[in-house]
Write a structure and sequence with these properties.
The chain is an alpha/beta fold. The chain folds into 2 domains: 7-194, Hexapeptide repeat proteins (UDP N-Acetylglucosamine Acyltransferase, domain 1, 3 Solenoid), CATH 2.160.10; 201-256, Udp N-acetylglucosamine O-acyltransferase, C-terminal domain (Udp N-acetylglucosamine O-acyltransferase, Domain 2), CATH 1.20.1180. 17% of the residues lie in helices and 27% in strands. It is built from 4 helices and 28 strands. It has an 11-stranded mixed beta sheet with strand order 3-6-9-12-15-18-21-24-26-27-28. A 9-stranded parallel beta sheet has the order 1-4-7-10-13-16-19-22-25, with no helix packed on it. A hairpin with a 4-residue loop joins strand 26 (178-181) and strand 27. Helix 2 (202-217) packs antiparallel against helix 3 (222-232). The relative contact order is 0.08.
Length: 259
């Protein structure tokens, strides 16, 4: 159901049961799939790809050109998965020549005034609370939670199931399954409450705690700690995910709170 006071470019590809409220603008080269609701005063620009059953609230701007002076008008996209909620005044920029797209996963929640810059990858079921600001080329793993007023440095990586406290400045990579807090941002334990809510067993949580005990509390440097983990701990999906994340970090891993 499209309101007559909305502007929809004739070349936009919009499923029949999408609802577009008054005063919203849909540009050409846009795809919106079934069941999505577009609230009033939303702007959806060229390159947007919006999944099924999404809800986009007033004032949001989706797929605006990157705020990157190197951007030369290349054909890029901003892709949003199914069942994702985008609250008031969220801005999501499309990609550049780096990744060619900005991606928001399925079942995500971006609260009011969140900004997602060009070439970011936000995983499934992530929650970014009010006014979180994410710079370009950032990668956020599934089920990560970033509390309000936090700012994430460009090229940073945040691991799956990580939880970052409000008002944080994320300058270094945040490994999976951890809580991150204080200034400068550092390890503050593992996200045990979140893991239990998602069905992780006590045994698995204890295993993750042991991995991070070696990394942050053993007194070893990261290289020695990772070697020790590989030697002494049996392979598992969680252990191996942490090791892969640590080995692939380019910006460096955040410190422990006492380091």
């Amino acid at each position: 159901m499209n309101q007559p006071l909305a502007y929809i470019h004739p070349e936009a590809k919009i499923a029949n049961n999408v609802v577009i409220e008054p005063f919203s603008t849909i540009y050409k080269n846009v795809v919106i799939k079934e069941g999505t609701w577009i609230g009033p005063n939303v702007t959806i620009m060229e390159g947007a790809r919006i999944g099924r059953n999404c809800k986009i609230f007033p004032g949001a701007v989706i797929s605006a050109v990157p705020q990157d002076l190197k951007f030369a008008g290349e054909d890029t996209t901003a892709e949003i998965g199914d069942n994702t909620v985008i609250r008031e005044c969220v801005t999501i920029n499309r990609g550049t020549v780096d990744r060619h797209k900005t991606t928001i996963g399925d079942n995500a929640l971006l609260m009011a005034y969140v900004h997602i810059a060009h070439d970011c990858i936000i995983g499934n079921s992530c929650i970014l609370a009010n006014a979180v600001q994410v710079a370009g080329h950032v990668t956020v793993g599934e089920y990560a939670f970033i509390a309000g007023m936090s700012a994430v440095h460009q090229f940073a990586k945040i691991g799956a199931h990580a939880m970052i406290s409000g008002g944080s400045l994320v300058r270094k990579d945040v490994p999976p399954f951890v809580r991150a807090a204080r200034e400068p941002l550092g390890y503050s334990g593992i996200n045990s409450i979140g893991l239990r809510r998602r069905g992780f067993s006590n045994e698995k949580i204890n295993e993750i705690q042991e991995v991070y005990r070696m990394i942050y509390l053993s007194g070893m440097n990261n290289s020695a700690a990772l070697d020790q983990i590989e030697i002494t701990m049996n392979p598992s999906r969680e252990r191996d995910e942490i090791l892969r994340f640590m080995h692939s970090s380019e910006r460096g891993i955040m410190k422990g709170f006492d380091q």
